[in-house]
């Protein structure tokens, strides 16, 4: 049974402190709980300011661009805090480009025997990502990256809705995570721990940990809390004071800390010498060695000791330990994929596109608010006149701006104009406002790197080639953000392969083969233990990739056809055609190639119009063509009939024996055609 520990406690020191460096196994539950909260505290103290800046960037991108102080000051002067949000459309353009040209993972074989397995894993990974909505989650994490500088995807194995289990992904809010402050690598491989805080209800915890129900129900809200508001970002130097700040009375939820960490452990590797080959072969365990010695006591074996990381997962709520044990995954790392923007050494944080657009965007908002204020003043600029000239000053103040208002004033017989009130002429709108508006539009494009061509707003008279070049220039400026996406995609591919090899053995997937045919692929055998490299690339089915590659291939394919050169069926993958049509077309090509293998004459016809051109070739050239067909000519240049070839039609041999010559031109007709397998001399 878990223990409820005191809210305050002494620091762990001495031998126990050494044991908790890796945190597992701990001397007791209290020790581990204190360790997790201390990790959370030190990571929160290091990152709380940066997380606040990320939250501000996210809110700014979504239109919350005036601070509470600014809004209060504007309302005092009766000004409207206008928001002309140009940041969000800019971010949506970049995100839309990523969604239209999603990167995919393609696995590459490390050894020659893994070629077929690599092709199958590539297709299976595509299917798994579609089934688990991982592509959409990845796009959402990338959107977080360009908004605030960081995005995270959590990859996990879930059995909630599918008893057999499936690999799924979730987007994790960047401020839910606290990462080891000493970590500097983009893939988190140098982080000692990653802790995620989630708000969960008591019912959820009872479902996940029914064996802890007595502790959870007995603890209650007060036993798990010392704070009414559940503030987790307190800068209290005593990290142990954060142990019990878990309960929030408003929504009646607890803050659950999910801690992933690792420690270095000694691992023994066993091997034994094969008496038949004399080579050392790996043995799984020491028990297996004992079994071999029982069969052959003279067998040679050895143990090699090495140290490696072992990953663990723990769950803590307040002072209560719910679970702590080895990671359920064979993946040597944390199950989080970071999407990172541009690193800022000054502030020690990652930046998105929003950060650079804040000042130009606020200039637009303030100028528009000022223009609106000037226009409002123009509509109600006020009146002046001699003292006592206004019959009803309140009526003049309220009704003068209204259309059709009738206002009375007192006539002054002494005054030349009778004491008629005069309207105060408003100041005209400064011309600099118009120029500043033009400059602001250029500034927003310059600082973000997103030009009008990438936004699809170029004029209709701009040539398409020029538009394409300018779009490439914009993507070059944004390449640092897309590099973060590519790096995350590669890490996701490695993690996905590890989970598929761990959980999907024996499963059958319907994949599309290289020839466009549908195949049933069963996962197992060498595929589950093979090692594969990978690359992250744009899918050939993305519109941009198909358009660019299709334009390049158009001229190449035309020249190949004119030269009677074969065109590989993979060219169809890069044409702007429906996938179903492409697959059917590739299947037809595969069928024709199979028929050509059975009939060598058909294979040669891919290169030469043999009916018309073969008789015009020299004997040496005819011999080369025959050899390509698998037919060996004799020393005189005449053909030696190959096994399996169709014999010449009746009568053609007599024509050959009578010494008739082929026609000099390529006229069609039965007399001028060369029978299959014959050489006309």
Radius of gyration: 38 Å
Question: Which term fits the overall shape?
Answer: flat
Tally of contiguous helical segments: 20
Proportion of beta-strand residues = 15-25%
- Distance separating the two termini: 98 Å
Q: In terms of per-residue confidence, which ranges show pLDDT below 50 for 5 or more consecutive residues?
A: 1-24, 225-244, 636-681
Summed over residues and divided by their number, the pLDDT gives a mean of 77
Structural class: alpha+beta
The main β sheet shows up as:
7 strands, antiparallel
Structure description:
With 681 residues, the chain is an alpha+beta fold. It is built from 20 helices and 18 strands. It starts with 14 loop residues before the first helix and ends in a 24-residue tail after the last helix. The chain is flat, with a radius of gyration of 38 Å. Among the domains are: 15-76 and 129-261 and 310-353, no CATH class; 269-306, no CATH class; 382-424, no CATH class; 546-646 and 653-672, no CATH class. The strands form 6 sheets. Strands 4, 5, 6, 7, 8, 9 and 10 form a 7-stranded antiparallel sheet that branches. Helix 10 packs antiparallel against helix 12. A hairpin with a 2-residue loop joins strand 9 (301-317) and strand 10.
